[in-house]
Design brief:
With about 120 residues, the chain is α+β, with helices and mostly antiparallel strands. It has three helices and six strands; from the N terminus they run E-E-E-E-H-H-E-E-H. The chain has one domain: Transcriptional Co-activator pc4, Chain A (Roll), CATH 2.30.31. It is about 25% helix and about 25% strand. Strands 1-2-3-4 form a four-stranded antiparallel beta sheet.
C-alpha cells in the first residue's frame, strides 16, 4: 500500500480516498475496508444506486433487526447489512456528495458509548 492518498469524501461513518500512485480507491466504512479500481468503483456506484431500500425495509419489517438492507458479495456466504442511515452515508461517500468532506468530526458525531470510571 502506498502513502500518497487524496481524501475525496469523508463523513461520520467513513471516508473515500484515492491512491495517486496505484490509481486505487480506498473506501473505509465503519469496520469495512474495500479497494476498487476505476471500473470496479463505477460498478459499485451503479449497484448501490440500484438497491431498492424500501423493498428491503418492507421485506424485513417484522424481523427484529437493526440493519435490514443487504449488499451481496461475490462470496456466497457473505452479505453486508446496513440500516437506512448507513446506506445513505455510504451513498454520500461513493457519490462524493458530502456537504463538508474535510471538516473535523465532533465528539457527538462518534457513535461510541463512553463510560467514566
Amino acid at each position: 500500500m502506498c502513502d500518497d492518498f487524496k481524501t475525496i469524501a469523508k463523513n461520520n461513518f467513513g471516508q473515500l480516498n484515492y491512491c495517486l500512485c496505484c490509481n486505487v480507491y480506498h473506501l473505509t466504512f465503519n469496520n469495512i475496508f474495500l479497494e476498487f479500481n476505476e471500473k470496479e468503483m463505477e460498478r459499485f456506484k451503479e449497484y448501490i444506486s440500484s438497491i431498492d431500500f424500501e423493498y428491503w425495509d418492507a421485506k424485513y419489517n417484522k424481523v427484529v433487526l437493526n440493519r435490514k438492507i443487504p449488499i451481496q458479495t461475490m462470496q456466497q456466504n457473505l452479505a453486508l447489512f446496513f440500516n437506512k442511515q448507513e446506506i445513505n452515508a455510504l451513498k454520500s461517500l461513493i457519490m462524493q456528495t458530502t456537504k463538508k468532506p474535510f471538516s473535523s468530526l465532533k465528539v457527538l458525531d462518534i457513535d461510541y458509548l463512553f463510560y467514566l470510571n
